[in-house]
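FW: tagging you since you asked about this chain on Friday. Here's the raw sequence from the shared folder, copied in full. Didn't touch anything.
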Amino acid sequence: MQSANQPRKASAGSVQIKVSNQRLQLVFSYLGRRYYLSLGLPDSKANRKAAEMRAAQIERDIAYGEVDPTLAKYKPQSATTGKLSQSKDPLKDSSTPSQSLIGDLWDRYTVYRLPNVTPGTVRTVHNHVRRHIAKFPTQKLEDAELIHLYLTGHLTAYGAKRIMVQLSACCKWAVKARLIESNPFQGMASEIKIKTKKRTEDDEMDIRPFTPQEQSKIIRAFSKSTYYKVYTPLVQLLFATGCRPGEAIALEWRHWLGNEILFEQAVVMDGSYRPVMKDGLKTQEKRRFPCNLNLQALLKSIKPENASPTDLIFPAPRGGQYINWYHFCFGAWKKILSQCGIEYRKPYQTRHTFITQCIEAGIPTKHVAKWVGNSEWIISQHYLGIINQVEVPVMVPTASH
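HL: got it, structure written out here
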């Protein structure tokens, strides 16, 4: 994505942000055709953020071949409904509260939140809710009950509740921002009851660790594969550390400290489903993992002689900055497990496998929790229950006198 300050020709699949007639405009090419989309917004810092979100959405659609050639999908909600706002700032509206539309409010709310959320939140929350809002039978706030009925009739209870929670949070912010007078969605999410599935020992967090024999078969199959051999060290490290996949992909050579590995960043998917680097980890800023001799030997064997400290330990094998985790899961990983005759389980099970084996080996939960970035409560609550190595001791009653 390029800004208006970078007028050079955009690369394939990218969207340029320009200024035309003192209004922000998006320019991109798709299937040999040039498209121009005016957002109707003046050039300001807040409006730039709104334009960047829209550009990211278009870039995602270009990558997946899902571009709407009419551009209606990408126009501001007010433009597609025939009620064009005259606001000069997407966070301020000169219209009366009763004229506010749900789509408009959501766009302004997400622009407000953008500096304080992760790329994953944009993808899994902001864009997800936006797609559902576009399908609503009405955009009027006074029709909140109708929207509630629509969501519960078209989505699962869980899905409908998630959307209602977000709509309520949006309108709560809008009330504080004096964009609307009251929150019509307040309390509606609590009316949606979710039937909780009774958890069983086999259903705890879907923990299905691999056996030591299965681990050996998987690693051996990767090492002998013509196409997927390059992933062997990555798979070995996942089994050996129990780290999250995004943490492993983000490792640079500066993070290997000899007898320790420093985890302090992760690769996540952004709003347009592209891998990006994120500082910090899921539950903490950073953590250190002790390297045993086997792990040190593995890293030493794959480190290039001219490796730079900022080079990735596990770079993308076929171009691109980072390993495409989606392609790995449903390509290399799935095929290798099939070749081994092993039931398909997500690569995340390597993490569950490491934690489970540590517990079975008698390592205290506080150490395991520190190594993998979980709390002791999580380890005790979700992993101790699946360990079947502990037998109830046989108590021999003594003879009474």
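FW: The CA atoms of residues 254 and 309 lie 4 Å apart.
HL: agreed, and The chain has 14 helices and seven strands.
FW: great, closing this out.
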